[in-house]
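A favour between colleagues. Tell me how you read the following sequence-structure pair.

===
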Amino acid sequence: MTIPTQMSLHGFIAAAPELTYGKSDVARFRARVGIEQWRKEADGAFTKLDPLFCDMVLFKSSAERAYARFRVGDQFVASGYVHEYEFERDGTTVQREEFVARRIGHDAARTRYNVDRPTPSAERDAGPEAGRESDRTVEPPAAIGL
């Protein structure tokens, strides 16, 4: 069996996100995002390079939730795909790409946050989750990795 996977992107929100609604009243979240870049040196050290930037979009209820939760500077992890498109500008065809996120969350390795879980239902109370703390503060260590 093949594990179903999607492309992922991790970075930071570089410019104020926008929430718009299209002709069919579908919500669209758009943000300029930055992706940190590093180069490994011959001595094993890493040198931080200028970030790369791209556009990221989400649609429907995911767009509304992302707009309510994400601000400039927030670190995120998203899964989705790259959408390549073209448009006309001043008589010239311009090619662009954007990351279309299907899922997004704050980067747990770089963000402190509280988990606000819904009250467990009666069915869950009897299951393996019964007795577990339903709300706790998650404070990860400093950035994991590089």
